[in-house]
């Protein structure tokens, strides 16, 4: 495939210097072209024709996304990065959104359309990005990108491990989670102090829970907030009857339960929690 080359206006001094990474925004700009290309290839580009990149910076990933047969949008909170992209990526004209991803109403960009999300995510907001994706899962069939390695591993972790937690259960209830590859600090400017990890989430065909969704989230969060306790003790707040609390599942600790078991547990609790019995 012919490589995309950004369309340049006559560069300004700021363009020549690039964009300054800003610590308060958690910016670490990827500089390795091969890794950028590999990340762009993590999406299937099937079942949707629009892609949103979060935090494109100077566009090292963006240019590989623009090779794909999809309509690429980028959302960037950093004004300096936006100015750079507008000057150097003319193909993105009208699709550069200077907004805060966590606060912006994405229906203003995509309405009810299906779209994928990708990016080199700032470490300081990466988990919040995942929670927003879960809220918008009816529109997001696929999600991939780079996180701090520890966070990426946690999202993809299975039950029975210490790193398995709230984010693991809630994400895996709706998406198939795959840890793809590790990225060293040396390929960033400035380099972070830890390794990064790239993952992919693929929405499950049946991503509607067979239980009350709000209660499911509450049960998972309540259990892991006291992860050293058994479910019998950590879920006392629900005032469940003694005969129900004798069920074997209540003798387990939260990291021992798969997301399917958390769904089953929520179904057991639901008649009491919802009705107030």
What does this protein structure show overall?
Helix 6 runs parallel beside helix 8. This protein is α/β, with parallel strands linked by helices and 277 residues long. The longest helix is centred in the C-terminal third of the chain and has 17 residues, at 259-275. The N and C termini lie far apart (63 Å). Helix content is 34%, strand content 16%. It has two domains: 13-203, 3-Layer(aba) Sandwich (Rossmann fold); 213-275, Helicase, Ruva Protein, domain 3 (Orthogonal Bundle). The strands form two sheets. It has a seven-stranded mixed beta sheet with strand order 4-3-2-5-6-9-7, with helices on both faces. It has a two-stranded antiparallel sheet with strand order 1-8. The chain is elongated and about 65 Å long. The model is unreliable at 1-16 (pLDDT under 50).
Lay out the secondary structure.
Elements: H1 13-17, E1 29-30, H2 33-40, E2 50-54, H3 62-65, E3 71-75, H4 79-88, E4 96-97, H5 107-110, E5 116-120, H6 126-135, E6 142-148, H7 149-156, H8 166-174, E7 175-183, E8 188-189, E9 196-203, H9 213-224, H10 231-234, H11 242-245, H12 259-275
Parallel strand pairs: 2-3, 2-5, 3-4, 5-6
Antiparallel strand pairs: 1-8, 6-9, 7-9
Helix pairs in contact: 6-8, 8-12, 9-12
């Amino acid at each position: 495939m012919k490589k995309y080359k950004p369309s340049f206006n006559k560069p300004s001094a700021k363009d020549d210097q690039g964009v300054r990474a800003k610590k308060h925004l958690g910016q670490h700009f990827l500089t390795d072209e091969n890794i950028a290309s590999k990340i762009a290839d993590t999406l299937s580009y099937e079942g949707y024709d629009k892609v949103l990149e979060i935090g494109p910076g100077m566009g090292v990933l963006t240019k590989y996304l623009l090779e794909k047969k999809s309509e690429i949008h980028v959302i960037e909170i950093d004004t300096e990065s936006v100015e750079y992209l507008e000057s150097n990526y003319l193909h993105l004209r009208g699709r550069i959104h200077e907004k805060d991803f966590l606060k912006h109403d994405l229906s203003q960009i995509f309405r009810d359309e299906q779209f994928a999300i990708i990016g080199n995510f700032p470490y300081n907001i990466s988990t919040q990005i995942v929670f927003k994706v879960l809220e918008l899962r009816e529109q997001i069939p696929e999600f991939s990108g780079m996180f701090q390695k520890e966070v990426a591993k946690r999202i993809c972790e299975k039950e029975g491990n210490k790193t398995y937690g709230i984010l693991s259960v809630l994400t895996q209830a709706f998406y198939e989670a795959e840890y793809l590859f590790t990225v060293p600090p040396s390929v960033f400017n400035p380099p972070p102090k830890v390794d990064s990890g790239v993952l992919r989430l693929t929405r499950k065909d049946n991503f509607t829970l067979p239980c009350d969704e709000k209660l499911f989230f509450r049960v998972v969060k309540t259990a892991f907030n006291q992860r050293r306790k058994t479910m019998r003790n950590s879920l006392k707040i629900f005032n469940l009857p003694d005969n129900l609390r004798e069920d074997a599942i209540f003798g387990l600790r939260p990291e021992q339960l798969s997301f399917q078991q958390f769904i089953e547990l929520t179904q057991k609790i639901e008649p009491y929690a919802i009705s107030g019995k």
